[in-house]
Amino acid sequence: MDIYRLILNAGLNINWRCIIYPLHIDNELVKSMAKAGCKEVSLSFESSSERILSLMNKKFKREDVRRISEMLEELGYLRLD
């Protein structure tokens, strides 16, 4: 959040993109990213299998990916056509 505030406070008119890990992502963060010029988000998850995620020692669950995908879709980052 600090970097997004810095971008906004500096009046930078930049476009950027990122890859996010699906943990500790909330609506406030996603909206701040959009306000700060984020135009493209890739959601990094290796599997939708709970078993595989656990074996890979991932700290997120399939439901986290779903929830974050829905947030991204609401802001136009993700289109499920």
DSSP E strands, number: 2
Cα-atom radius of gyration:
14 Å
User: Residue ranges: pLDDT <50 for 5 or more in a row?
Assistant: none
Tell me the domain tally.
1
Structural class: alpha+beta
Distance between the termini: 30 Å
Helix content: 40-55%
| Overall shape | elongated
Q: Provide the residue-averaged pLDDT.
A: 89
Largest sheet: 2 strands, parallel
Continuous helix count? 4
Order of helices and strands: HEHEHH
Strand proportion: 5-15%
Neighbour order of strands in the largest sheet: 1-2
Short characterization:
The chain is built from 4 helices and 2 strands, in the order αβαβαα.
Description:
- The longest helix has 13 residues, at 62-74.
- It is elongated, with a radius of gyration of 14 Å.
- It has one domain.
- α2 links the parallel β1 and β2.
- The protein has 81 residues and is α+β, with helices and mostly antiparallel strands.
- The mean pLDDT is 89.
- Strands 1-2 form a two-stranded parallel ribbon.
- The chain contains four helices and two strands; from the N terminus they run αβαβαα.
- The chain starts with a helix and ends in a 7-residue tail after the last helix.
